[in-house]
Amino acid sequence: MTASQAKAPSALSPRERLIVALDMPRVEDAERLVDELGHVATFYKIGMELAYGGGLAFASRLAAAGKSVFLDLKLHDIPNTVERATAQVARLGANFLTVHAYPQTMRAAAAGAAGTDLKLLAVTVLTSADDRDLAEAGYALGVQALVRKRGLQAKAAGIHGLVASAAEAAALRAELGREMVLVTPGIRPGDADAGDQKRVATPAQAIADGADYLVVGRPITAAADPRGAAEAIVREIAKAAAG
Ligand code: C5P
């Protein structure tokens, strides 16, 4: 068990609250970045791109090396498949796994993770979807109402936390209380390029809105000095958490 996994969010150090997104196709590049960041980063997110390019074996190696690992695989399938896939991910030694926030899927994943150290995060509504996209897909609810409904359903299904934009974090925190973990992507330090992210927040804003963990990709991975960029974000988290 790693340090960040054993602790309540409130007991996490600023460094443990930073999750670096390894959004790259090649394991060699991810390994190089992890080496370069050294002790500055303790938690890494591996998404579908790297997972389908050898990233699952790499996830196991990272976990064995004492890093915390977030597998962002967004599972959604029939309950039997989700339960068994979740149990496989637990065997890899990952700390966090994402599933889509459908009640059936969340209950199956919770059953698959039972008795293991794996924590589940639900993705309520993808941040790429707006009200029109939901209507097109046949939903009667808009984004805000569906995020709220699925947040409550995640809690009822025994899910550990939610992935939410900083814009959603404050409302979810008020609705769900302290015990659910909130993991927030779309983080941009003041001087960074937003890229394709539409709803961005600074590390300090995200912490103030109730985020426990911040997922940061390009502001670190595409920086000329990734280690310096990660150190600056950890400093900002420390300042916001103290204030
Ligand atoms: O490079 P950037 O900091 O924008 O990366 C953010 C990471 O968080 C990416 O891995 C992206 O897939 C992920 N993410 C997101 N929005 C969500 C869920 C995950 O940006 N709602």
Outline the secondary-structure elements.
Blueprint: H1 3-6, E1 18-21, H2 27-37, E2 43-47, H3 48-64, E3 68-75, H4 79-92, E4 96-100, H5 103-113, E5 119-123, H6 131-136, H7 143-156, E6 161-163, H8 166-176, E7 181-184, H9 203-208, E8 213-216, H10 218-221, H11 226-242
Parallel strand pairs: 1-2, 1-8, 2-3, 3-4, 4-5, 5-6, 6-7, 7-8
Helix pairs in contact: 4-5, 7-8
This protein binds cytidine-5'-monophosphate.
| Radius of gyration, whole Å | 17 Å
Helix content: 40-55%
> In the CATH hierarchy, what is the superfamily?
Aldolase class I
Shape, please? globular
Note the run of SSEs as H and E.
Answer: HEHEHEHEHEHHEHEHEHH
Total helix count? Answer: 11
Number of domains in the coordinates? 1
Bound molecules: cytidine-5'-monophosphate
Mean pLDDT: 93
Percent in strands: 15-25%
Number of strands: 8
What is the CATH class? Alpha Beta
How widely separated are the two ends? Answer: 30 Å
Structural class: alpha/beta
For the sheet with most strands, the description reads: 8 strands, parallel, barrel
Outline the low-pLDDT stretches.
Answer: 1-5
The CATH architecture: Alpha-Beta Barrel
Oligomer: single chain
The CATH topology is given as TIM Barrel
Lateral arrangement of strands in the main beta sheet: 1-2-3-4-5-6-7-8
